[in-house]
Amino acid sequence: MAITYNNMSCLFKRKGLLKTSLGYAEKALKLETQSSKVDNPACTHLNLCAILSCLGRHQHALEHCQVIYKAALLPLACAREREPGTISPTSRHSRPSGLAIRSPPPAT
Question: Of 10, 36, 29, 30, which is closest to residue 21 (Cα–Cα)?
């Protein structure tokens, strides 16, 4: 169900309905944090980061970005502890990825 909420959030974000999009993303994250089956809700955090940035809530967006960053570093730190100088393969959900945060439009 969390994936469906996150997908709905993306749909509403594309349509420019950011507050509706935010509601669905928050529902998705709540379900993901309550579930033992979800090991890495990075996609939802990334979506929340983008939505909050578009809404001008950059500090809150940054907090979600930092969660993603820390989650991406954890597998790397564990790999270094096992065998220095090597990095074990990680799932596609735990790899670091690029992130762009929309800056606010210039004041007119």
Answer: 10
